[in-house]
Amino acid sequence: MNKYAFVSCGDTITTKLARSRLALDIWYELLWWFVYDFTANKTAKEVKLPQKLVHRCFFTIRNRRSEKREKLRRVNAVKRGRGAKTLLQPVFGIYQRNGTVYVKFVKDTGKKTLQKIIKGKIVLESDVYSDTWTAYDGLKKKGYKHETIDHGNKEYFKKKENKKIHINGIEGFWGYMKEQEFRFNYRNLSTEEMVAKIIKILVKSAPLND
């Protein structure tokens, strides 16, 4: 693997990356492993860095890239005017504890639409965990054991039989989908160009803390 030896970027980019607490050469190396689609755990072993640090850096990369993606979508929606809503067609997902995911494009995220899908896909009396979106209100009355996890109030899991129950599975799936979307859209870039692309996204957003 060539790692980061052939990265080409200007002085401004180098300077901004250097403001991070993480050494510049480490950022470059992590970016190469990221572009090659290695997991954070595998990368941590290869570069001999703490797993938490690599996970945090990979999360930062994905988060900044998603922010850039959403910003572009909002700009395009403004430019297009009527009909732009099709750019933001909602997608509904159900994640089972065995790792199976069901995904469906929906016309809206209202209560009637989502609960109809839930009724068709989830057996009554099942344990159902969701965020606090109002469309899920009333699931208990329909026969489900429904509980919400309020991330807005810094609640990240429910305790049940000494186990922590969370909704990170479905959120991780959405993150994976965004990841594959980015890689597909820029599949014609060389490895060096992909690294340079991600660097530009990183330095154009908020200061790096790692």
TrEMBL record:
Name this polypeptide is given: ISXO2-like transposase domain-containing protein
Pfam family, one: DDE_Tnp_IS1595
Residue ranges of domain ISXO2-like transposase in the record: 71-185
Signal peptide: none
Cited PANTHER family: DDE_TNP_IS1595 DOMAIN-CONTAINING PROTEIN (PTHR47163), SI:DKEY-17M8.2 (PTHR47163:SF2)
Domain of life: Bacteria
